[in-house]
Design brief:
heterodimer, A: alpha/beta, Aconitase, domain 4, seven-stranded mixed beta sheet, 28% helix, globular, B: five-stranded parallel beta sheet
Chain lengths: 200, 466
């Protein structure tokens, strides 16, 4: 996982609510067993429309995706996040996120920023304008800035997630340091809890 | 002692490590694994030279992309073959039990867990699949996770998780005759919306829930994720215990008694605190049909396609407009006049024996409409066998249905079972997203009984009048 500190990029505006992960990464690409290379398949069906925002050269190289409420709903497929990661997205901003998508982003190293609808509307209008909107996002200070438009927004982020993202740490290693506590817990579990050992 | 919700009780019992500023580290009792969301997790273990901590708490099966036609024939899809072989190789290497496709216990991961008695009250259960919420029907805390978390659980048998908020959805009173678990959950999603449950665990309560069979409860909990909540659960009771008794991996003898004593403590305390409480009058619930491209866009069978111009919320309006265009439907049309050409009875939502029994009663002695192609895909090899023992397969076959092997099938169309562009399907599955069942395909979510009725009529119809 790469670390995430300061991002300055044009904002890719996806002005739709309830964008589900079936749209972000259609099922036919879930049969791959690789971890990388999902970018070309992201929004596969919607991209067939030449007017779809991802086809607009203005937003080429965007690292910030701006969306509407309940972004990433539906299937738990992390392939959706891998697709966004592979097209260069590092931060997604929306009024709300589906829980599993949000959690998957944190594991992969993408930051989900939740803002209120009014703030989203302001950013959406500017980023859909002819020249687009460039935002600077500082995770350390938890700030979103554009001086030209006097944008200076503070955002919330979970402290532990912030620490992991800033340092590019995956949390398996962190949890493995708690092996003693896990062993201790295991020694106290009920005997009647199920085991798959005898299934075969 | 503070009064706790059921979910809080299970949560607290599984906290390995608690510390301010950190998510709780939860122990995982059961990890369900399938071919689609696991390959990269196993690869991650190999790269980092890590082991699977507790293979005895894992169970794997092949369900998502497996063909449901004759399995003695070659699988036509090389990518599917590779993904299935990868799971075989991984489960062998890491010593995880696998129910492979020629094992009659193979099936949809959320059908086989309960069927084998692995799913029990009070457990924490995870799977790289959002419909893991299904297992909450047994009073367990079950949620879907992504592949990174699958890797985390394989390596540590635990998961760092921030504690969600608590929601109670009380279905007050009894439903009218002919109303199913599917109708109840579609009514709930219609009321709270596809994002209404974000950040919450939902506990379903009320007589209408208590009166459901385990199959009906699983249908309700299964679609919890379609309301945005990661987990949904129902307090265990005699119905739960009767279902579990004598299941292959359920506790036996003295252990059963001890388990039962514990399970009887699993309920929300009086005066416990829910962050959100929703109440629905059971008597108002009708058979529901979705008309749009998310599971909240639904109407009762007596209803008409809504007019987006009447919707005040700008996003809901825009979503409805796009949905109607995709679905090729016009406002004001009676849903019962909408013709279908496909019927799918199956999926982790509605492929259990009770679902098949109920649908078979509707089609018994009748024929499906000329313009309709219909398939039944049992949830597991054991469901299939039981149905065949009861003669249910012949009822479907005689009516013109195809009778298939177990798997996820047309719910998400990762195998050859897909809708062609423009085809319209009455489906007992859980998602009506654009292209979900096949590019350009149009999905209407209904109960097994309503799907069966639509197959016979060739259009949607009120099953209660048949």
């Amino acid at each position: 996982m790469n670390s995430l500190k300061n991002i300055s990029s044009i904002v890719l505006p996806l002005n739709r609510a309830d964008v589900d992960t079936d749209q972000i990464m259609p099922k036919q690409y879930l049969k791959r067993i690789e971890r990388t290379g999902y970018g070309p398949f992201a929004f596969d069906e919607w991209r067939k429309n030449p007017n779809f925002v991802l086809n607009n050269p203005l937003y080429k190289n965007a690292q910030i995706l701006l969306a509407q409420r309940n972004f990433g709903s539906g299937s738990s497929r992390e392939h959706a996040v891998w697709g966004l990661e592979d097209i260069g997205i590092k931060i997604v901003i929306a009024p709300s996120f589906a829980d599993i998508f949000n959690s998957n982003c944190g594991k992969v190293g993408l930051l989900c920023i939740q803002l209120n609808q009014k703030e989203i509307n302001t950013l959406m209008n500017l980023s859909e304008s002819k020249s687009g909107l460039i935002l600077s996002i500082n995770l350390e200070d938890q700030k979103i800035i554009n001086e030209e438009y006097s944008i200076n927004i503070n955002f919330e982020v979970d402290n532990f997630l912030k620490y992991r993202l800033l340092n590019g740490l995956d949390d398996i290693g962190i949890t493995m340091q708690r092996d003693e506590a896990i062993q201790d817990f295991e020694s106290k579990r009920f005997n009647f809890y199920p085991s798959s050992k005898t299934i075969i | 002692m503070t009064n706790k919700t059921l979910a809080q009780k299970i949560w607290d019992k599984h906290v390995i490590h608690k510390e301010d500023g950190l998510p709780d580290l939860l122990y995982v009792d059961l990890h369900l694994i399938h071919e689609v969301t696991s390959p990269q997790a196993f690869e991650g273990l190999r790269i980092n030279n890590r082991k699977v901590r507790r293979p005895d708490l894992c169970i794997a099966t092949i369900d998502h992309n497996v063909p449901t036609t004759d399995r003695t024939l070659p699988n036509p899809d090389p990518l599917s073959i590779k993904q299935i072989d990868t799971l075989r190789k991984n489960t062998k290497e890491f010593n995880i039990p696998l129910l492979d496709i020629f094992d009659n216990r193979q099936g949809i991961v959320h059908v086989i867990g309960p069927e084998q008695g692995l799913t029990q009250p009070g457990l924490t259960i995870v799977c790289g699949d959002s419909h893991t919420s299904t297992h909450g029907a047994f009073g367990s805390l079950a949620f879907g996770i992504g592949t990174s978390e699958v890797e985390h659980v394989l390596a540590t048998q635990s998961l760092p998780s921030p504690m969600p908020k608590m929601m109670q959805i009380n279905i007050k009173g009894n439903v009218k005759p002919g109303i199913t678990g599917k109708d109840i959950i579609l009514a709930i999603i219609n009321k709270i919306g596809v994002d209404g449950g974000i950040g919450h665990i939902i506990e379903y309560t009320g007589d209408a829930i208590k009166n459901l069979s385990m199959e009906g409860r699983m249908t309700v909990c299964n679609m919890t994720i379609e309301a945005g909540a990661r987990a949904g659960l129902i307090a265990p009771d005699q119905v739960t215990f009767d279902y579990l008794k004598n299941k292959p991996l359920a506790p036996k003898g003295e252990e059963w008694e001890r388990a039962l004593t514990y399970w009887n403590t699993l309920y929300s305390d009086e005066n416990c605190k829910f962050d959100t409480i929703i109440e629905i009058d059971a008597a108002t619930i009708e058979p529901f049909i979705t008309w749009g491209t998310n599971p909240a866009q639904s109407i009762p069978v007596s209803g008409i396609i809504p007019d987006p111009d009447q919707i005040s919320d700008p996003f809901a309006k825009e979503t409805a407009q796009r949905a109607l265009k995709y679905m090729e439907l016009s406002p004001g049309t009676k849903i019962q006049e909408v013709k279908i050409n496909k019927v799918f009875i199956g999926s982790c939502t509605n492929s259990r024996i009770e679902d098949l029994r109920a649908a078979s009663k509707i089609v018994n002695g009748k024929n499906i409409a000329d313009n309709v192609h219909a398939i039944v895909v049992p949830g597991s090899g054991l469901v299939k066998k039981q149905a065949e023992d009861e003669g249910i397969d012949q009822v479907f076959i005689n009516a013109g249905f195809e009778w298939r092997e177990a798997g996820c099938s047309m719910c998400l169309g990762m195998n050859p079972d897909i809708l062609k562009p423009g085809e319209r399907c009455a489906s007992t599955s859980n998602r009506n997203f654009e292209g979900r069942q096949g590019q350009g395909g149009r999905t209407h979510l209904v109960s097994p009984e309503m799907a069966a009725a639509a197959a016979i009529a060739g259009h949607f119809t009120d099953v209660r009048n048949m």
